[in-house]
Amino acid sequence: MGRELAVGLALLAAACAPPGLDSIASREDARVPDRRFWSRALAAGEPAVRAAAARAIGRLRDPGLAPLLAGRLGAERSPAVREEILFALGQAGGEAARSALRAALAAVEPGQRMLACEALGKVGGREEIGLLARALGDPAEEVRGAAALALARLAGRHAAEPVPLDAGEAGKIAGKLASLLRASGAGERWRAAYALAEIEALPLPAPELEAALADGDPRVRLFAARALARAGPGAALALGERLADPSPHVAAAAALALARAAGPQAAGPLLDALDRAAGPAAHHLRLAALEALEALPLPREAAGRIEALAASDPSPRVRGAALRLLARLAPVRALPLFRAAERSRNPYLRAAAARAARNLPVSEAVRLLRRLRLDADPRPASAALETLGEIAPATARAEALEALRSKDVAIAGTAADLLGRVGHPGDVAALERLYGTARGPERVELRLGAVRSAGRLDPARAERFLRAALADPAPAVALAARDALEAAGEEGADPSPGHWRSTAPAWPRGRPAPRVTLRTDRGDIVLQLDPEAAPHHVASFVARAREGKLDGLPFHRVVTGFVVQGLDPRGDGWGTGGVLLRDEIAPLRFDGAGVVGMPNAGPDTGGCQIFVTLAPAPHLDGRFTVFARVVEGLGVVDTLDVGDRCRRAIVQ
Question: In this structure, how many other beta carbons lie within 10 angstroms of the beta carbon of residue 346?
Fold first, then answer.
């Protein structure tokens, strides 16, 4: 009895103690939405404690806590804490957040106006378009750039539901962005070009964008090229010149834009670019040129050049694209090369052949894909299943129902996702069985796929299953169940995931920030880790590096002009290495090449992989954890291709 009383008194004392950095970190990682605690933490005497509380509330993503942040914003005297609050309001969302952020657009400090613009890009809507358009004329460069990105986030192609613009406001926004293309700061120029590329409702200022193709900053040239895809044949000459750009990502963007802008007349320059592309990063241009050519009429003699690439290019991505194009141009000549790829020892090439088979005659494609579906390696097996879903839905459904029983997470997960597109309402029962057996952190994506697909097929039939998933320990799964039930008009769908914690401890506060060198097939890449922003991610990454768990792992995904992704023990993007990390979103941005982030399958599903940006990717801001930057070896990152490996990771 005495011991129980002592424990109870200790717990009471802990609850009444002033919030500190440790108690904030503990509640943040457990995602405890305790309004009383967070209110006290925001009013703590130490600015560092208040700043940590604001950041933690943002990571909870709970609109119900936004009024606490909004209320504190007016009373807060520390500029650093105010900035954390503004960032957190953009993560929390809700009407209280929007109202506070609209008011903050009039703040005296430019940094706070910038953060208000950025946050409104995440949580704003139709009402904020005019305010952000006016902010394009703000006297501070950082505010103008943030307003451009916020408008792109609200009305651009990456928005879940782009805000429609009327012709008058679209013209005014385009005019202001065109003037920003001539600004003195490169950061402002690339953000303006990005907005013009993203918001397809804007009229194009073609002369200013063509001039931007010669900008000294590759970020400006990249987004100017993407924007000019809508400019028509008049931009063909300027885009054609960029096929020789020193940046492989600009050259690739120019190739894709040229095909869209110029149509058939782009075929000649693109075929020539295939022959001229040279150097360790040239696979980016060859791939883009092949993808661009796929939509164009080509002369018969082009088949020979494409066939040579399909037979022997060192890049699996390029060979796959060449196979796909050759299958359209000359399927009889393509078939022997598909069979050779099927026999290759390289699983990434076999997977590329599976994706390329969509352009073969259907009967030939189905035979090839059914063989690859039984490949011993899940990479080609799951790719074959995906392609079957595109060309032969009935066959794909039968294969997917069988694949649901696979013990491999990638094959079963691909099957679950596919059934959401080609399945029948009666398949909900099979998805429910999959959900019931998919336990543990390695199988979060399986449960997520089962929930999403069941919701698409027949949410009424899946209601019992979906309501059970509201209590899934992974927040992403619980939220997907809520969304499926709400879409079906069901009430009372409140997710209640368990208060689990990250599997890795936090990096000790005050310990110096480490560096890690990744010794890859292409050269060394040095990462500067940021434990202040992401202590659990840094601790997990360093521990795995020290234990040798990163040695020999491949880079399995490369998207030109976007990211390189890898260090998955499975080598296919489905692995977690037994790691499960809460998101640690901080005011760090994907604002250039070399930003290192954590892939996820939804909120709080970080694992053991990494991705490294090849260019700015503002649509990822606030959605993925940034925990490092490349400080040496950016050129090496550009050369990485699918299948390249990290031979050794060295902690410094």
Answer: 16
Find residue 255's DSSP bridge partners.
none
What secondary structure, in 3-state letters, does 236-304 show? HHHHHHHHHCCCHHHHHHHHHHHHHHHHHHHHHHHHHHHHHCCCCCCHHHHHHHHHHHCCCCCCCCHHH
Euclidean distance between CA atoms 364 and 337, whole angstroms: 13
**Do residues 385 and 415 lie in contact, with contact meaning Cβ atoms separated by under 8 Å?**
yes
| Fold agreement (2-124, 193-420) | yes
The runs of H, that is alpha helices, within 61-109 are: 66-75, 79-92, 95-104
Query: Measured between alpha carbons, how far apart are the two ends of the chain, in Å?
Result: 52
Identify whether the C-beta of residue 102 lies closer than 8 Å to the C-beta of residue 130. Answer: no
- Judged against a pLDDT cut of 80, whether residue 59 lies above it is answered with yes
**What angle is formed at CA 499 by the lines to CA 493 and CA 500, rounded to 5 degrees?**
125
Decide: helix, strand or coil at residue 593. Answer: coil
* Residue environment code for 97-136, b if the CB has 16+ CB neighbours within 10 A, otherwise e: bbebbeebbebeebbbbbbbbbbbbbbbeeebbebbbebb
pLDDT given for residue 11 in this prediction:
40
Distance CA 173, CA 204 (A): 11
| Percent above pLDDT 70 for the chain | 97
Mean pLDDT across the chain: 95
Provide mean pLDDT across the span 625-641.
98
What is the C-alpha separation between 35 and 547, in angstroms, rounded? 40
Domain extents in the chain: 2-124, 193-420, 421-500, 515-651
Q: Give the single-character DSSP code of 228.
A: G
Q: What string of DSSP letters covers 144-171?
A: HHHHHHHHHHHHSTTSSSPPP--HHHHH
Rounded to whole angstroms, the Cα distance separating 356 from 313 reads 15
- Per-residue burial over 426-452, b if 16 or more Cβ lie within 10 Å, else e, is ebbebbbebbeebeebbbbbbbbbbbb
Q: Is the pLDDT of residue 501 over 90?
A: no
Beta bridge partner(s), residue 515 = 528
| Domain at 2-124, CATH from 2.60.40.3410, 3.90.1150.10, 3.40.630.30, 1.25.10.10 | 1.25.10.10
- φ, ψ dihedrals at 406, nearest 5°: -65, 145
Was domain 193-420 assigned CATH 2.40.50.140? no
Other CB atoms within 10 A of residue 10 CB? 10
Q: For residue 323, what is the enclosing H or E element?
A: helix 316-329
The token duo for 555 is: 């880079």
- The secondary structure of residue 559, as a DSSP letter, is E
Residues for the chain: how many in total?
Answer: 652
pTM (two decimals): 0.95
- DSSP structural state of residue 514: P
Task: Please list, in sequence order, all residues whose beta carbon lies within 8 angstroms of the beta carbon of residue 422, skipping any fewer than 6 positions away.
Answer: 389, 393, 394, 396, 397, 400
Q: Which 3-state string (H, E, C) describes 541-556? A: HHHHHHCCCCCCEEEE
Fold topology of 515-651: Cyclophilin (2.40.100)
- In SS3 terms, 373-442 reads as CCCCCHHHHHHHHHHHHHHCHHHHHHHHHHHCCCCCHHHHHHHHHHHHHHCCHHHHHHHHHHHHHCCCHH
How sure is the predictor about 497, in pLDDT bands with cuts at 50, 70 and 90? Answer: low
